[in-house]
Design goal:
The structure is a homodimer of 377-residue chains. By secondary structure, chain A is of the alpha/beta class. Chain A is built from 10 helices and 20 strands.
Chain lengths: 377, 377
């Protein structure tokens, strides 16, 4: 009898907790893909309640990264739908949890690729949350802190996020251009800074899209002599305008001659098939070839072991975004030095975003589409 | 008329020079392969005259490196036959050119993979002659300083070499074990030293043959905790005897469990097909994965670009032998610390060496065959 009363009490408690939790959930609306490679449609859902360390952000802008296409197309493994992409997000803080001191209502906040991590491992302690085994992606992630619900991204009117995973955006920032910094910015800033590029170093940026053009801007700001590699003629003028000293159209074989052993640092931002050994050969002895571009799993560029032996003494390594501390540093550096992406602002309606994805896939966007989330209906 | 007299004089001069040069050529005999993958047969030939900076070495020992098999089998591109292999050589100096001060008659000298370089490029000036664009291989090389004749290696009774490309072997060295140091020794010593391994670091050596077992000995001497990876059970006891704390038979999947992110430094000496990504995953964040093993060109292990992105922050690079200064340092270090290869001495007759090659190909040699060149008939 005691046991039954106990269980009943427990049941009432659990049910009432669930009701409270449910009441506190935040209604959200956004644009979702409902199947692999499908177009966008409106989607209504809820986000978890605002915890003590969380902030609620009203989304202002969210941008389109090439990796969003890889996710919506399931290029990088099985996904769960409906999926609301968006991991380059800027918005206004409209509510803060009781422990939050980093933000106050009215501040501007940025959210990138991740929204949580264990906080206890060596990576987390070193400010390298992106490498934590429990790192939680901003969308298509499993939210282990909230019953394993699937996270949804920034193509929505709001987002709830731990303050530790949001960066403070200075009020004087050019808000419509900030979102791409949260992925394209930090992903290129981090390896460029950590490679200790010196003024006058020869730097090559392979792939001149969303990530690549940010890399060019940072490398130029760091004083490097920058060469850009891409597969089109369309952006030659833009490269020069951004301060690159040379632009190489990889499809013109003659432009590639005499470039072996030329660069102190090469960054590949290429998200599709290419010849990585060509860039390894172009790296100077004791130079670095860093890789941040991630092509589809089933269409992977490869290195042969012999490439490394023949081009001995060149370091090849990959890099993923950057830790939260470095992301804040990148944002402050970018705003202070007026380094922003080239953006094309589009409306937050399903057809427009669907068409924008098609354009990205066809290489028709020059650098970055930014969705004005205030236009979401 | 003056012109004709001039030409005649020139002709006489050239012809008489050629005769002198021809007279001075050094007769040599050795063991050669006469076709790709063929067995050894005796071979008589001549070597270029002893120049002012050259020494003549009477070969005592020459050893069999796995790369000799790649050359005799034409795994690494077209070769010219007859070919006298051998790039791990030790012998006695029997004659010196007039400018030579580094050696005197009666000294012991070692010769490794290269016998000349331009001497003027940045690599040569930095003591990295192995990366000089004009580096001349000890055998199957084109001798641009002697009318492009093809160089012949150490499976012969003598060798003529520039003093700069021979190392002085201390008189107290264990001569029958010195030869393999000139390639297997320096090839593993160089990346291990340059990786700045600290006492207690976790080091893995992949491939436990001629190169691998030298790597184990050096890494143990440097104070590292060494794990050995190979594909056989036969050498487990030897690894322990050399000071390795762990031996992993890669064919036993269970032994590979839980090894990701384990090693500060991994050296691959594997000369055949393998999975390099497995080792990349086992490398710690900010650790190094160095490659010295070079499999056949038409059977190359590959890395995917995504391997680098997922295992971000690990450096992958290749390394080739070592410069002459470092080779001398390696030799002195090895002799002082009594670090020698495990050798099996064989006779310098054609059938024995042919069989030895078959054994190496079949993985039947544990570490290194050394040919006693004094037994050459």
């Amino acid at each position: 009898m005691k046991k039954i009363i106990g269980i009943s009490f427990l049941l009432v408690f659990v049910l009432s907790s669930m009701t409270i939790a449910q009441e506190k959930r935040i209604p959200a609306k956004g644009l979702a893909v409902y199947e692999a490679g499908g177009g966008f449609k409106p989607y209504e859902f809820t986000r978890h309640a605002i915890g003590d360390d969380d902030i609620l952000i009203e989304t202002m802008y969210a941008s389109i990264c090439h990796s969003d296409l890889h996710h919506t197309h399931q290029d990088w493994g099985t996904e769960i739908y409906p999926m609301v992409p968006g991991h380059e997000i800027v918005g206004k803080v409209v509510k803060v949890g009781k422990n939050v001191t980093k933000f106050k209502v009215g501040d501007y906040a940025g959210v990138g690729c991740m929204v949580n991590s264990c906080g206890e491992c060596d990576y987390c302690k070193a400010g390298l949350e992106q490498y934590c085994k429990k790192v939680m992606m901003t969308y298509h992630g499993k939210d282990w802190a909230h019953g394993n619900e699937i996270t949804q991204g920034g193509y929505s009117n709001n987002i709830v996020v731990k303050d530790r995973f949001a960066v403070l955006v200075p009020k004087n920032a050019d808000m419509k251009k900030v979102a791409p910094l949260l992925c394209a910015g930090i992903t290129t800033y981090s390896p460029l800074r950590q490679s200790h590029i010196k003024k006058g170093d020869n730097v090559a940026i392979a792939g001149f899209g969303g990530l690549g053009h940010m890399a060019v801007k940072y490398a130029v700001a760091l004083g490097a002599k920058v060469t850009v590699f891409d597969i089109t003629e369309d952006k030659r003028a833009e490269a020069a305008k951004m301060g690159a000293i040379k632009y190489v159209n990889v499809n013109n074989e003659s432009e590639l001659k005499g470039m072996d052993d030329s660069f102190d640092f090469i960054l590949s931002t290429i998200p599709a098939m290419y010849n990585p050994s060509m860039y390894l050969k172009m790296t100077k002895f004791k130079g670095d070839f860093a890789i941040v571009g991630l092509p589809a799993f089933n269409n992977q560029p490869t290195f042969k072991v012999m490439d490394f032996v023949f081009c001995a003494g060149r370091n090849v390594y990959g890099s993923q975004i950057g830790g939260m501390k470095e992301t804040q540093e990148m944002l402050d550096y970018s705003v202070t030095n007026n380094i922003y992406p080239e953006v094309e602002i589009i409306k937050a309606n399903a057809d427009t975003v669907t068409q924008a994805y098609k354009n990205v896939l066809a290489g028709k966007v020059k650098f970055r589409y930014v969705i004005d989330m205030s236009t979401l209906k």
